[in-house]
Amino acid sequence: MDISTVNFYTMKLIILLSSFLAISSLSGQQVLTVSTWGESGGNYGNIRYYDDASALNKKQTVMLAYADITGSPFWDDSWNEARLVLSTGVLIKVKKAKLNLYTQQVHFLDDNNTDMICQNNNIQKLIFLKNTDTTQVLAVFEVHPDVLKSSADVAFYKALNKGNFRLVELEKALIKDSDYNPLLGKKEKSFYTKKYYALASNEAISSLSSLNHENIFAVIKSNSDVDNWLYQNKNKLKKEADVISFLNFYNKQSIK
Predict the structure, then answer these.
(1) Contact assessment for residue 93 and residue 69, using Cβ atoms and an 8 Å cutoff
(2) Using an 8 Å Cβ cutoff, are 116 and 60 in contact?
(3) Which stretches in the chain have pLDDT values below 50?
(4) Cα Rg for the chain, rounded, in angstroms?
(5) Angle at the Cα of 250 (from 248 to 166), degrees rounded to 5?
(6) Mapping DSSP to helix (H, G, I), strand (E, B) and coil, where does residue 166 land?
(7) For 62-122, where are the E strands, in sequence order?
(8) What CA–CA distance (Å, rounded) separates 179 from 182?
(9) Rounded distance, CA 13 to CA 194, Å?
(10) Dihedral, CA atoms, 56, 60, 62, 66, nearest 10 degrees?
């Protein structure tokens, strides 16, 4: 066998090995699919398969670290039916979902009751339905940039009213250490929550350090009708209910 024949077979072997490795690499990943739920003519889907490296979903692993922390990181400990509105416009129905306020991620149960995490960079809105009556909305969360971070992280803001200008609430679960417990031989950790407010309009989000007249009107415009309404209703814009009531009035005006 001459040298040209050896080189031919060597190259052929290299090509076969490269092809095998490429196929093995691909077969090790499960591609996420969004299959139709069954409605005719609707843009609906249901998450069926998951991949650790997928851009949308990954297996939930952080729960293992919660065993030593008292309290809960979830907005609601119950599994609620939910709707996910994706950036593509697709509406996904999820039978059992939770919102993790510590990681700012959506947990859901798959067909095997495995706890999964949905990457929130593809989600625009999260809608929870009431377990007792799924025709009723329990809460609506909008996805916006996290105003508490300078990075590109996003977070879930609970919408407190409808309309062009919305008061939204960012609730975060944090971890605190208690004093040293000599019986346990360690400091105990526990979850607690803090709430932050912001004003949302379309995709814009403006942080509010506190609820008051000055902060609200740093974001939106005023006029004599607005001032009269606030005066007549003795509304100081210092409470959540006051701001919601005002925005419901404001959104009906032709103020831009």
Answers:
(1) no
(2) yes
(3) 3-64
(4) 25
(5) 60
(6) strand
(7) 69-70, 80-86, 91-100, 105-109, 115-118
(8) 9
(9) 61
(10) 140
Please report the pLDDT score of residue 90 as a whole number.
Answer: 86
Which amino acid is located at 155 in the chain? A
Backbone φ and ψ of 235, nearest 5°:
-100, 115
Q: Which of 73, 168, 83 is nearest to 124 (CA)?
A: 83
Closest CA to 229 of 253, 199, 193: 253
In this prediction, residue 256 carries a pLDDT of: 54
At 16, phi and psi to the nearest 5? -65, -40
Token readout for 80 is 């609620």
Q: How far apart are the first and last CA of the chain?
A: 84
pLDDT for the residue numbered 255: 59
Phi–psi pair at 110, nearest 5 degrees: -85, -170
- Return d(Cα 179, Cα 163) in angstroms, integer: 46
